[in-house]
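Hi team, as promised in this morning's meeting, here are the two structures we talked about. I've kept the exact order from the run log so nobody has to guess. The first one is mostly here for context; it's the second one we should focus on when we meet again. Sequence first, then the predicted structure tokens.
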Amino acid sequence: MRLAIMGASVRAAAFSALEAGFEVVAADLFADCDLAARCPAAKMPPDPHAFVRWLAERDIDGWMVTGSWENYPDQMERMAELRPLLGCATDVMRTCKQPIRLVSLFSAGDVRFPETQFTPPPGSGWLVKAISSAGGLGVDDWLPGSPVPENCYWQRKIEGTPIAAAYVAAAGCAVLLGVTEQLIDRRWTHSQPYHYAGSVGPYTLANSRLAEGALAMQLAHAGELLASKLGVVGVFGIDFVLDDAGAAWVVDVNPRYTASMEVVERFTGMNIVAAHVAACTRGELPAHRPEPACYAGKAYLFARREVVFRRLPELQLADIPHQGDVIPRGKPICTLIVDAEEYGDVQRRLQQDAKRLESWLFADEV
């Protein structure tokens, strides 16, 4: 199968597809050198219409998307008319990004979802969230009396551990593939508050406060609701906050391949894109949830100031810029990847590798 993969950054999904034996053509905002070395990769402008034109010129058997495309259902509808879509139908994409629909769905299904409203709350303890967002962009603490952004809503802030669950669905059923802890508000990544900066997993095996089965049941039920009630198909993700009482609160739904799935692949050994294609084309699902075999993690390192990229070959890197690329302040430099025998070692080693990479890239500061 000749497969097109599109999104803001597609390297992880493209590598998964290549490992599964698919012929891949890719289009994203970076066309980093490790992606371009393994398959045809187009560097695209941040314009969804440009992706539509690109797809129209490709000879492919199907296409799938990664992050941020759920915010462009009109363009996805046009692309689905051009080439076969492997994934959620565009009306499902729209529903998954409508907070009021999610409140109704999860409340009726006894899944916790934070109090949500579309007018500014008078007090604190709320988040203001852009309706069209991904990766934590457009999320901030609400300060009463602040200017009201356009196209936003307010969600009661839930304190706890941010986790992400990965699933695959077909014919109204969903299988939970794995759970990761999200790296958010980690100063050593230089990311902005609430911005996604990486994942570590499997989370359930590392969490001693809860019975693993009890947490898995909560997460599995939420995924089954999306598959059975909304018709979600293929791989998808749900972001949760796990509170101190052990309750998992849904805070976002991502009806497509997600960034944490690369980590799930590493600790389970399963191929996520192969599972996605099997679900979308043949209605097939894995017979059971894959068992973790190790611990793994990834972290995005963001530029604390403008920097010219110089590669450090001793580290395990991905999403690697081209030699000499200028990375503006606040933009992602690359992805650090770690495997370890203990859960606690993963984030520690990611932080160590981030420090080593920064010492190389910012050697002029010494």
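And here is the second protein, the one for discussion:
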Amino acid sequence: MDPSLINWPAVVIAALSAFAVGGIWYSPALFGTPWMADSKLTTDEIQKGNKAKIFGFTALFALIMAANLAAFLAEPKTDVTWGATAGFLAGIWTFGAIATHSLFELKGWRYIFINGGYSIVSLTIMGAILGLWR
């Protein structure tokens, strides 16, 4: 790893991409409704959530994830293809963690695939951004 190869503006954009993907992924048009049902949450409960806490920590964790992925990709050979591949592989890794936790929480496979799928897609896009914007 060569820290001088980390493009910090790309890290920020990669982190922001997780918000864009999440906004689409968890919208009622895609997986929002089944995710809410499997989470046993209502619209009222979600609306009562502390938005500053939720979005603030989500931004922090997305930034940590993007910076961590950028550190792994901080090599001269990194390009968009390798970035997307590394992001996909990181997504598979996190999918496994999500599945393990969810199984112990007695969640169903639909819930696991919704959350794990988001992780795979968002990390693949993060990696592509980081690989492209060298």
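Starting points for discussion:
The chain has one domain: 3-132.
Residues 80-104 form the longest helix (25 residues).
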